[in-house]
């Protein structure tokens, strides 16, 4: 390949400068919210916690909800809540870690409701044990649900998004996808992975020239979902599922690539790239942000 010409270099620099100016402008004046009324939104892990609040939040904007969970009663309860507030919801029993189950239920959704246009990969589990306490089965289950499930759901619904150049893929990651944490080795691994998954997927979509398929990755701090007990944070209160859902839906409506909850975590995530490891450790210790070792459940 030939070396870049002077004209090409200057053109690149001008484009870079313009993008910096544009990004600064959008910090002050965000993009207007898009209309998602009538969109078909699929939320995994919708029986409780963040998933339930996401379903309720999307429904308030007129979207049709498709709810997937292994907890049938909880999932039906979420669907009922959506309907009570005047929305439309379809609840399905689905194990997102099982490829056959995902394929079977996805086909039912296409037949019963239509093509999913906004996919929210939210389902997740967390054990809160140190690495040597985790069983082989627990480690595999964490990766299967928190990471591998994203492959199976996206492969089912991305083709139609590509066909029509229309859609949105939402990934609920975690600040543990930026900072490894003790007693979260399996969980952090899974959340780092889905962060990379979504970034690579977005680049593939861009290379295909599909400009109207968006991705949003969400990075919340510790959330009070009942997955763990004994969360310590010196300067932050534990987030509620409602706070995470509200920030997520707002980010989707404005096509934000990344959503940090709280927003200042965006700064700390970027700061990590420039600070020495020992400085980062000092700041982590000063903030005392951690979970306590969870009790290992008997078989």
Explain what the structure shows.
The chain is of the alpha/beta class. The protein has one domain: NAD(P)-binding Rossmann-like Domain (Rossmann fold, 3-Layer(aba) Sandwich). It has helices at 6-28, 49-59, 72-84, 99-112, 136-164, 185-207, 241-253, 265-271, 277-287; strands at residues 40-44, 64-69, 88-93, 118-121, 167-172, 213-220, 231-232, 258-261, 290-291. It has a 7-stranded parallel β-sheet, with helices on both faces.
| Terminal-residue CA separation | 61 Å
Global Rg: 20 Å
How would you describe the oligomerization state of the chains in this entry?
A: single chain
The sequence of SSEs as H and E is HEHEHEHEHEHEEHEHHE
Biggest sheet, open or closed, and with what strands and sense? 7 strands, parallel
Count of DSSP H/I helices: 9
Strand content: 5-15%
Number of E-state strands: 9
What is the class in the CATH system? Answer: Alpha Beta
Strand order of the largest sheet: 3-2-1-4-5-6-8
- CATH homology group: NAD(P)-binding Rossmann-like Domain
CATH architecture designation? 3-Layer(aba) Sandwich
**In which range does the helix fraction lie?**
40-55%
Average pLDDT works out at: 89
Low-confidence stretches: none
What spatial form do the alpha-carbon principal axes imply? globular
């Amino acid at each position: 390949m030939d070396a870049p010409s002077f004209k090409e270099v200057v053109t690149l620099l001008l484009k870079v400068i313009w993008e910096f100016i544009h990004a600064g402008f959008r910090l002050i004046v965000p993009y207007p919210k898009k209309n998602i009324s009538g969109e078909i939104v699929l939320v995994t892990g919708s029986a409780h916690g963040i998933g339930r609040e996401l379903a309720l939040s999307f429904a308030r904007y007129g979207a049709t909800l498709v709810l997937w969970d292994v907890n049938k009663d909880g999932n039906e309860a979420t669907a009922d809540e959506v309907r009570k507030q005047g929305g439309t919801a379809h609840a399905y029993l689905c194990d997102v870690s099982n490829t056959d189950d995902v394929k079977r239920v996805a086909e039912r959704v296409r037949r019963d409701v239509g093509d999913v246009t906004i996919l929210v990969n939210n389902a997740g589990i967390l054990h809160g044990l140190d690495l040597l306490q985790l069983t082989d089965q627990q480690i595999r289950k964490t990766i299967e649900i928190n990471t591998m499930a994203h492959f199976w759901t996206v492969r089912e619904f991305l083709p139609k998004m590509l066909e029509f150049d229309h859609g949105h893929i939402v990934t609920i990651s975690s600040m543990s996808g930026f900072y490894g944490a003790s007693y979260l080795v399996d969980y952090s691994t899974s959340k780092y992975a889905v962060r990379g998954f979504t970034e690579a997927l977005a680049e593939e979509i861009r290379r295909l020239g599909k400009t109207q398929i968006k991705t949003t990755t969400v990075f919340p701090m510790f959330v009070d979902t009942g997955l763990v007990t004994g969360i310590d944070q010196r300067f932050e209160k534990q987030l509620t599922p409602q706070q995470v859902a509200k920030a997520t839906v707002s980010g989707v409506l404005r096509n934000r690539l990344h959503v940090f909850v709280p927003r200042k975590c965006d700064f700390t995530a970027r700061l990590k790239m420039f600070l020495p490891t020992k400085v980062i450790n000092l700041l982590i210790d000063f903030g005392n942000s951690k979970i306590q070792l969870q009790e290992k459940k008997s078989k």
